[in-house]
Amino acid sequence: MAYKHRQVIDTIPPYKQGKPAPIASSQRTFKVSSNENPFPPLPSVREALETQALGAINRYPDMRGWDVVRRIAEEYAAYGVRPENVVLGCGSTEVITQLVNLVAGPGDEVIYPWRSFEAYPIIVTGAGARSVQVPNRPDGGHDVEAMIDSINDRTRLIIVNNPNNPTSVSLSDREARRIMEAVPRDVLVLFDEAYFQFNDAPDANVAMTLYGEFPNIVVAHTFSKAYGLAGLRIGYAIAQADVVEGMRKVALPFGVTQSAQIAALASLDAEDELMGRVESIKSERTRLFAALRRQGWDFPRPYANFLWLPLGRGTGEAVKCFTEAGLSVRAFEGEGIRVSIGEPEANDAVIAVCQRIMAGTAESGLPRHPAA
Ligand SMILES: Cc1ncc(COP(=O)(O)O)c(C=O)c1O
């Protein structure tokens, strides 16, 4: 149907959700396409939902999410964070949307690395602003100098994604500081740290360490990844109180459910147990990386809960191999494949299929070298 609408919306690429595990009766299949946490919900989180949340779903949630907000402020009190510096959203996706809607509209520009989180162009275009996508360095890291060179009078926001989705490359403290020192003080910089708990790079930046020094920093975190609450949709940002106030004005009213808030609080209570799970995902990542390196793969060392195979034009064929092996992965046609770290059996299957791809059988027609 022809209907009157904002033409710019026609330019938005649809978000491609990671596919579910392939259906196969002959083998176990796995979803390693959405960077989810492979562990099931913690018993304590389940119990909190059963005892506190289910009976209250006829009521609207606390719109400000004070209990969670206060708790997060306590966690970051050492950095000078107070409750008025914390804002919740339906996942960090909504937090990022709030921020973009607050600062950028028609005629304004938002700078971010590319390839990166695929929601960025959707959110920026949806706000009516223009995306300035700065190509990553060949190793998949942010091209910090090119990002700085892109700043002009129209710039309203710079997004840093650390570690970067999908390349899994970590941003160093030196690079983060370089960005902050170059950006005008009245332009906000968003550090999207959805995967920071997985980042053990020795020189990794943790944006909160710069927060006290640079008031124009906004840090976005999520309960979806390390905390395993992707299905409940809750994330948060830490920023100056007036920025938080502005974000609240454009937030989806009642967007963060009480169930999500209860699960977030229970997860914060179980922090040690959850960080233990993060450690085991990291050790699986180390095992995968070492195995693939031994096979001859050449790709950046991963610092999030996924790895990036820069297969270039071999991507489509390789995806078929993964699917046949019972694995759904996230393909970026012509660029590469992002594989989440999953259950040990899923990771074994990834190692086996990567071996086959690397062998480059005549039938598959794949190049021997992943970046060829
Ligand atoms: C870089 C990055 N930021 C933010 C998010 C948003 O996650 P959520 O909305 O579930 O908090 C994701 C999810 O995949 C991501 O990869």
Head-to-tail CA distance between termini: 44 Å
Strand content: 5-15%
Bin the helical content.
Answer: 25-40%
What is the average of the pLDDT values?
95
| CATH architectural label of the largest domain | 3-Layer(aba) Sandwich
Largest β sheet strand count, sense and barrel closure: 7 strands, mixed
Could you say how many structural domains there are in total? 2
User: How many beta strands in the DSSP annotation?
Assistant: 12
**Shape type:** globular
Which homologous superfamily in CATH is the superfamily of the largest domain? Type I PLP-dependent aspartate aminotransferase-like (Major domain)
Which ligands occur here? Answer: pyridoxal-5'-phosphate
Radius of gyration: 21 Å
pLDDT < 50 runs, ≥5 residues? 361-372
Assigned CATH class of the largest domain? Alpha Beta
CATH topology of the largest domain: Aspartate Aminotransferase, domain 2
Q: What sequence of helices (H) and strands (E) makes up the elements?
A: EHHEHEHEHEHEHEEHHHEHEEEH
Number of helices: 12
Structural class, please? Answer: alpha/beta
**Widest sheet: strand ordering:** 2-8-7-6-5-3-4
EC number: 2.6.1.9
Domain Aminotransferase class I/classII large: 31-348
GO molecular function, one term: pyridoxal phosphate binding
Keywords: Aminotransferase, Pyridoxal phosphate, Transferase
